[in-house]
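Anyone up for a design puzzle?
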């Protein structure tokens, strides 16, 4: 990794990873069992005592594939179930983090108020690498919801990902480093604002194909299937390479995640109309990987 990318990543990672993240293994600890209180509801705040390594540092993503918000049509078809899911997500989030959680203004999301914008920005990057959809608006963090979310599966996925990342943010990153992260986000935003996937249905197959072709011209990465709305998959061939490129993309201020050996990068016609910024960032980190 180049010195600039390495410096950025060291700033973003908790100190326990700063000299060891190349050695972090993407091996899961297994899933924690649900616990229930006297009222019969899940006691979310009594489930976890420890967590797997951050996927942002190269640990195992919480999910194997991306968890996406439900579509408006799906929500409209079952509004009562959707309201129950949102209520349980908000209850669980508040129990495990102490953060305020409310329904988002647009359906398909719950909204969590973080202590400051830099915390929101860090959680956004960390949660997406866990393969949970997320969005940011100022100090608000949006997490996905849907009427078919199950307590033991998707609801638990969302709450666990936030509990895990909040644990690392509040318990493993000192105040001085949080200030450095805040400064880094401002600096990166001024030079190249964070590119995120378009989740509003504006991504056409042509836009994804154009980006894939641009990347293929500059690298050996071929387009891979799957990935969800607003994401382009790129086959890396090896888990270790996918992890390396994912972390480097985030240090380039391009949101990224992985599923097994596939790297996923955002497609966003509004932020990056011709895909030039994302393609250039991918090419830079592929060249950096070859030199590492």
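Challenge accepted. My sequence:
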């Amino acid at each position: 990794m180049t010195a600039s990318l390495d410096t950025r990543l060291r700033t973003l990672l908790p100190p326990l990873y700063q000299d060891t993240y190349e050695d972090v293994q993407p091996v899961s600890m297994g899933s924690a069992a649900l616990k229930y209180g006297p009222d019969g509801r899940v006691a979310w705040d009594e489930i976890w005592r420890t967590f797997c390594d951050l996927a942002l540092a190269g640990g195992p993503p919480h999910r194997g594939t991306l968890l996406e918000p439900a579509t408006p049509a799906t929500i409209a078809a079952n509004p009562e179930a959707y309201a129950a899911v949102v209520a349980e997500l908000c209850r669980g989030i508040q129990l495990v983090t102490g953060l305020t959680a409310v329904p988002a203004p647009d359906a398909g999301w719950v909204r969590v108020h973080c202590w400051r914008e830099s915390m929101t920005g860090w959680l956004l990057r960390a949660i997406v690498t866990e393969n949970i959809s997320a969005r940011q608006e100022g100090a608000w963090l949006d997490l996905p919801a849907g009427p078919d979310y199950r307590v033991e599966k998707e609801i638990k996925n969302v709450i666990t990902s936030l509990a895990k990342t909040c644990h690392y943010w509040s318990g493993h990153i000192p105040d001085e480093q949080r200030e450095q992260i805040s400064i880094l986000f401002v600096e990166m935003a001024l030079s190249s604002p964070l590119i995120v996937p378009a989740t509003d249905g504006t991504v056409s197959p042509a836009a994804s194909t154009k980006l894939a072709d641009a990347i293929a011209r500059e690298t050996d990465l071929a387009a891979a299937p799957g990935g969800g709305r607003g994401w382009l998959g790129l086959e890396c061939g090896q888990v270790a390479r996918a992890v390396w490129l994912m972390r480097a993309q985030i240090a380039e201020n391009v949101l990224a995640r992985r599923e097994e050996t596939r790297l996923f990068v955002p497609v966003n016609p509004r932020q990056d109309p011709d895909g030039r910024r994302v393609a250039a960032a991918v090419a830079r980190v592929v060249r950096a990987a070859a030199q590492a």
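A detail worth pointing out: The first helix runs from residue 3 to 12.
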